Structure formats: C-alpha cells, structure tokens
Hints:
Radius of gyration: 19 Å
Number of strands: 9
CATH superfamily of the largest domain: Class II aldolase/adducin N-terminal domain
Order of helices and strands: HEHEEHHEEHEHHHEHEEHH
Strand order of the largest sheet: 2-5-4-3-1-6-9-8-7
Shape: elongated
Helix content: 25-40%
CATH architecture of the largest domain: 3-Layer(aba) Sandwich
Number of helices: 11
Amino acid sequence: MKDILTAPFVQEMMKTTANMYRLGWDERNGGNISYMLETEEVAEYLDLDNVIRTIPTGFDATDLIGKIFIVTGTGKYFKNVEFDPETNLGIIRIAKDGTTAELLWGYKDGGRFTSELPAHLMSHMTRLKKDPNHRVVMHTHPTATLAMTHIHELDDKKFTHTIWEMCTECIVVFPDGIGVLPWMVCGNNEIGIATAKKMEEYRLVVWGLHGIYGAGKDMDETFGLIETVEKAAQLYMSIAHLPHLNTIRDEELKAVADAFGLEYRKDFLKLN
C-alpha cells in the first residue's frame, strides 16, 4: 500500500493551506477545507475496513453516506498542516447512519474535523445536485473581501456588480455571481443552511464581517474563485474613497460575457 503522505490529495491540502496562511487569509485556526475523494483513489493508500474511531457530525448527511472527505481539523492552524498533516488533517467517511463520521486516517492527537463540517456537508450536497463534478468546499478570511463587507451593502446583486466592475476577468471567472449573507453566528447549522441555500445559485458566498465560502470541482478552481474576488476587493478598497473617472460599464460587461459565451446573471446588469 502506498504512503498516504505522498497521496496527491494530501499534498494538495498541505500546499493549499500553506499558501492561504502565507497570504494572510487564515490567521490562527481560521479557515477550513473539505475535499471529497474518490473511494478507489483512497484505497490505494488506506485500508478502508480499518475505522480508527467514529465521530458524531451533528448533522444528517444521508445524501453523502459512503462518501470520503479529507478535512482540516478543528482548532488547527493552517501554518502547521505542511509540517504535521496527520495531526492537522483527517480522512473521514460518512457512515451508514448519515450522522456519524468514520475516521480512516489523521487527527492523531485525538482531535476531530472542523466545527463547520455540517455547513460544508450541506454545501457539498447542494453543489452536487448542481454539478456532479463538484468536490471542494473552502472557507477562508481574505482580508480585503472582509474589509469590503464593512463598507459595502450586503446584497447579492450590488456586491457582485461592484466586484465585476473592478477588473475584466471577474465576470469571466464567476459569471454566476456572488451570494452574500449578513453577519451570523458561525459554527452552527443555521449559517450552514443559509450558505447551502445560496449555493443553489452561486459557487461563492460571502459571510458579512467574517469571510467567504467557495465551492468547485477541484482545489485550483475553488481557490481561484476566491483569489479573484479578493483581488477585486483589494482594488475596490484601494479606490473606494477616490473619484471614479473610469469603470467597466454594464454594456461592456455584457460584451465580455458574450465574447466568452458565458451564461451570466443578466438580471445583475442594467441593459437597454
């Protein structure tokens, strides 16, 4: 059996969490990632009949029974994942009761998955119904995006429109727009339900005064969605207090979307 530490999905988690920490998005134990894996791929590295222990999830994920995820641990620092992945990460399988996780590897200090796992599972279930290739849910605290939620209206259409205006690539990267939630208590099922509801329309959900959730088919796509929003938010925060002499007009946003053959939120633009 192959060494689990050489598995591509473990290496991806190590590299991505390190990158996010160095960008300043995931201070202390902030942020969490869950990545749904192929059973056949995991079987090359682990004995799937060897369940180390079971952990209640606090949520009925019946739709995900048998699915395997690699998940960041609760209270763990992203900066430590690359140096001690077996303590800071875990590979879990949703058990037959739908409410229990079977630990197959990791959390070697007796830890458990992120407290926001129920929110992740809800978003996974929603996105799988929209895209069968969906695999990743990522939550992080990118600085400029968080700052922007302090001074911008927390409205899907208005927030998306402002981000789209910041640089040409935005409407290309996320033509489906950005969902926005007001401030809510984190780590409970209520915010998970609200996020999953937004995920019916969007792959990106901004949590007001907190951070952002992204969903995608792989780590690169999901990270790329978030970093593009963050770049646009940096631009916005740099110029928000200055006179705006130039902007990308709605007809020009439409021209970009049409040129790339995109299905975009036409209702987010004012067109004649």
